[in-house]
Design goal:
By secondary structure, the chain is mostly helical. It contains 11 helices and 6 strands. It has helices spanning 36-39, 43-57, 62-72, 81-87, 112-124, 132-138, 142-151, 177-188, 191-205, 224-235, 264-280, and strands at residues 130-131, 158-162, 167-171, 210-211, 243-247, 254-258. It is elongated and about 140 Å long. The protein starts with 35 loop residues before the first helix and ends with a helix.
């Protein structure tokens, strides 16, 4: 059946063409793939083609042959590439080379004061202070070296904290000032002064009384038996007359406070509140 319905009789008819009746532009005779004369040309045509190729191959005269030989490299050697490049005319480069970047000036050598500051920074990374005594072991004039370090702008991060036994140095960008003070107290192993300083600091900064078990933690490591002896000794010293003890009503936990910064009633109320929250948690 036709695509658009049944074909009516007599409307159109199919015609068959013989090969000799096909027009030339549609004939396979023009197709090189099926043209038999390409592989087996006619003898007369082959003779004409050979004669044309021979005429093209023969030069018109001897001079032309010599020129042709020079061009094709048959009678002369090929020109060297480097010789050819040297024979080219000089042409200005449209893209001149960029100027070299200026070399950075070398950093000046570090002074002894700056080396000392680096030494203090390295110890601070391990949470260690640097006492003056340690500096004086390797430097005879330690005070002059320390003064030079503190006057150098590149050593502005180096701070000091003074204790009763020595002066200690640390890096303020690595170690907090409060921690440096605690580290100084624990380094000098003056337990009474350490407890008193921390109790006064907590009463003033927060404010809050300080539980006795607070000093059992790092970096103090003072157990209850040691703390009892420390508190008993503080009561007999005039320098620590402001340090008092209060007992929490909730569970009998002892707290320390400074009477100069906080009243006993207020300290007891804060202690009871802290222990009540601990019990709830």
């Amino acid at each position: 059946m036709a695509l658009f319905g049944r074909r009516k009789p007599g409307f159109s008819r199919e015609e068959e063409w013989k090969p000799e009746e096909i027009p030339g532009e549609f004939s396979d005779a023009l197709d090189p793939a099926v043209n038999k004369e390409i592989d087996h040309p006619h003898p007369e045509k082959k003779a004409a083609q050979d004669a044309a190729q021979q005429a093209l191959a023969e030069p018109a005269d001897t001079g032309e042959a010599a020129d042709k030989g020079e061009k094709t490299g048959e009678t002369a050697e090929k020109q060297d590439l480097f010789d050819y490049l040297q024979s080219l005319p000089d042409v200005e480069d449209p893209f001149p080379p960029s100027e070299p970047e200026p070399e950075a000036p070398p950093e000046p050598e570090m002074t002894k004061a700056q080396l000392l500051a680096d030494f203090i920074r390295e110890r601070c990374l391990s949470a260690l202070l640097t006492p003056r005594e340690l500096i004086a072991r390797d430097e005879p004039d330690a005070d002059a070296l320390i003064a030079e370090m503190e006057a150098d702008e590149r050593c502005g991060d180096i701070c000091r904290v003074e204790g009763q036994k020595d002066v200690y140095f640390y890096c303020g960008e690595t170690m907090a000032h409060n921690y440096a003070k605690i580290a100084m107290l624990t380094t000098e192993r003056d337990d009474a002064r350490t407890v008193a300083e921390m109790v006064r600091f907590n009463c003033k900064a927060f404010p809050t009384p300080t539980p006795v078990y607070y000093f059992a933690r790092q970096p103090f490591f003072l157990d209850r038996e040691r703390m009892k002896a420390v508190v008993a000794g503080m009561k007999e010293q005039e320098a620590y007359r402001d340090i008092r003890e209060v007992i929490a009503d909730v569970n009998g936990e002892p707290y320390l406070y400074s009477i100069d910064l906080m009243s006993e009633k207020y300290a007891r109320a804060l202690a009871n509140g802290a222990e009540s929250r601990e019990a709830d948690d």
